[in-house]
Amino acid sequence: MSTIHLHRTTSITAEQYIDALTNFGLGRSKLFGNSADEYLKVHRKGLSEADVTEGSGGVWQRLHYDWSNPDRVVLTTTDSNVWSGSSGHTYIFTRRPDGSTDIDVVVVRDGKNVKGWLLGLVLGTVGRWVLEKAFTNSVKVVEALSSTPRKFWSRAPTTVDRAREWQPVDRVNSGF
User: Fold this and answer.
1) Quick one: three-class SS letters along the chain?
2) pLDDT tens digits for range 110-158
3) How many other CB atoms are found less than 10 A from the CB of residue 1?
4) How many angstroms separate the CA atoms of 32 and 17, rounded?
5) Mean pLDDT of the region 81-91
6) In this predicted model, what pLDDT tens digit does every residue of 27-63 receive, in sequence order?
7) For all residues of the chain together, what is the average pLDDT?
8) Strand partners, 66
9) Closest by alpha carbon to 130, among 54, 47, 33, 15?
10) CA angle at 135 for the pair 132 and 136, rounded to the nearest 5°
11) Is residue 97 predicted with pLDDT exceeding 60?
12) Exposure string for 64-88, b = 16+ CB within 10 A, e = fewer
């Protein structure tokens, strides 16, 4: 089993990152590179939890997302072709007095077969940079979206399988 700790301090709020993290619409791969659109399937989504299958590169996992705590989002693996139920992600948000946010992520990778065991070993050692790069990129994309002048990113419903999609909305023309 590999446990990887990641950290970023950012100008975005916890709510902005949680909004991005829990947006399961088309284009999700632009924010989260390890979540390819062709793997994405939303099985169920509520106000503060979701059951979603996602993945990329031949590795998929079904995750239970829980964002009921505004300071923590927990993704628990419920099924996967390589990861056991001990795998998952925990995002912890600490709001700082200067308005910035610390985001700490704990990724647990426990292989349930030889492929998973080998991938977990690689990610826990020399492959950690892959997860670091993906996390850093997601924060940078959300920062860029949040600083777009006169626009914000709202969600619009799409299909059942692809629950929401990011769409730019002009605040001046939308009444906001």
Assistant:
1) CEEEEEEEEECCCHHHHHHHHCCCCCCHHHHCCCCCCCCCEEEEECCCEEEEEEEECCEEEEEEEEEEECCEEEEEEEEECCECCCCEEEEEEEECCCCCEEEEEEEEECECCHHHHHHHHHHHCCCHHHHHHHHHHHHHHHHHHHCCCCEEEEEEECCCCCCEEEEEEEHHHHCC
2) 999 999 999 999 988 888 898 999 999 999 999 998 887 544 444 443 3
3) 13
4) 12
5) 96
6) 898 899 889 999 999 999 999 999 999 999 999 999 9
7) 85
8) 49, 74
9) 33
10) 85
11) yes
12) bbbbeeeeebbbbbbebebbbeebb
Topology of domain 2-171, CATH: Alpha-D-Glucose-1,6-Bisphosphate; Chain A, domain 4 (3.30.530)
**The pair of three-digit structure tokens given for residue 13, joined into one six-digit string:** 């709020």
pLDDT, position 162: 38
Q: Are 78 and 64 in contact (CB under 8 A)?
A: yes
Determine what percent of the chain is predicted with pLDDT higher than 90. Answer: 71
